[in-house]
Specification:
By secondary structure, the chain is α+β, with helices and mostly antiparallel strands. It has two domains: about 10-110, Arc Repressor Mutant, subunit A; about 115-159. About 60% of the residues lie in helices and about 15% in strands. It has helices at about 15-25, 30-40, 50-55, 60-70, 100-105, 115-140, 145-155; strands spanning about 45, 75-85, 85-95. The protein has a three-stranded antiparallel β-sheet with strand order 1-3-2. Helix 2 packs across helix 5 (about 100-105). The two termini are about 15 Å apart.
């Protein structure tokens, strides 16, 4: 019997691996920011005010976590111009990077994802994996034709 596996794979920048894992999983607030992103949709912008409203953390804690996650490449930060009652207000918006999306998806339940999201995740995972295998094969001097043949063999076995 073949055990069904959930595709939990994350590619980490070597030099920041420990810091990233610690920032996300060493703090419940970091995990909750990612869960918040999952609930609202991983491609949507994240706003500090929404996090403060939805999560049970102080504004200071939210800001510290957003800064850390941005510095480590889990989030991207941008500025948005909002006009309200003849006033211009600049608001920071955060988006998950590809790395951030992978961490958010580690926390997701498969049933929470649409079939389209699952297909996009699989394609993105496969593309990233192939690029990493190709790079490693170059470093190790492995014949890529052998890897290609292995891929073809394995694809034939899928029923």
């Amino acid at each position: 019997m073949v055990e069904k596996l959930h595709p939990y794979v994350v590619f980490l920048p070597t030099e920041k691996k420990d810091k990233i894992l610690s920032a996300i999983f060493g703090s419940k607030a970091g995990v909750d920011v990612l869960r918040f992103s999952l609930k609202q949709g991983i491609s949507k912008d994240i706003y500090q005010k929404d996090l403060v409203k939805s999560l049970n953390y102080s504004n200071k804690t939210i800001i510290e976590n957003l800064k850390t996650l941005t510095k480590l490449g889990v989030l991207n930060e941008s500025m948005e111009k909002n006009e309200n009652e003849n006033r211009i207000i600049w608001v920071k918006a955060y988006q998950l990077t590809n790395l951030g999306k992978w961490f958010a998806l580690l926390l997701a339940e498969e049933k929470e994802l649409s079939e389209q999201e699952k297909a996009e995740i699989l394609e993105s995972l496969f593309r990233t994996y192939v690029k990493q295998v190709k790079r490693l094969a170059d470093e190790l001097g492995i014949n890529k034709k052998m890897l290609e043949e292995t891929f073809r063999e394995e694809m034939k076995e899928i029923k």
